[in-house]
Amino acid sequence: MLHVGLSHTSKLLVSPEHYALSLGSGDLEVFGTPAMLALMENAAMLAVANELPEGYTTVGGHIESSHLKPTKPGKEIEATAVLTKIEGKKLFFDIEAKEGDKIIGKGTHIRFIVHKEKFLSALESD
Questions:
Q1: Would you say 114 and 122 are in contact if contact means Cβ atoms under 8 Å apart?
Q2: Rounded alpha-carbon distances, angstroms, from residue 78 to 24, 26, 98, 117
Q3: Residue 24: how many CB atoms within 10 A of its CB?
Q4: Among residues 9, 25, 7, which one has the least CA distance to residue 17?
Q5: What letters, b where the CB count within 10 A reaches 16 and e where it falls short, cover 55-82?
Q6: What is the mean pLDDT of residues 91-108?
């Protein structure tokens, strides 16, 4: 059952596919902002995934975050999402990314609960 306080922490080891250079968001071999945001979204998705009815998932609707500190290759990043508010099918999360005990990113994220088949069928009508 969905309830405020659900949380999840997703982790990754910074490797070439996560570099700003590889993602096109910069020209340095450091942890790219798009990779950080994806990890934060992953944590939010997984925080509620097991509490949804069969056939349902969540999709991202809005994310707002600051990328506060650079991270070099080979470091482990943890992103944690905490469900802070539920408005019907609209879910609100606080999100944070850390390298060890150093906060490297912080923000908020909104996800929407959708029925998988119904959501995908909307693509067919385009």
A1: no
A2: 22, 21, 5, 31
A3: 9
A4: 25
A5: ebebeeeebebebeeebeeeeebbbbbb
A6: 98
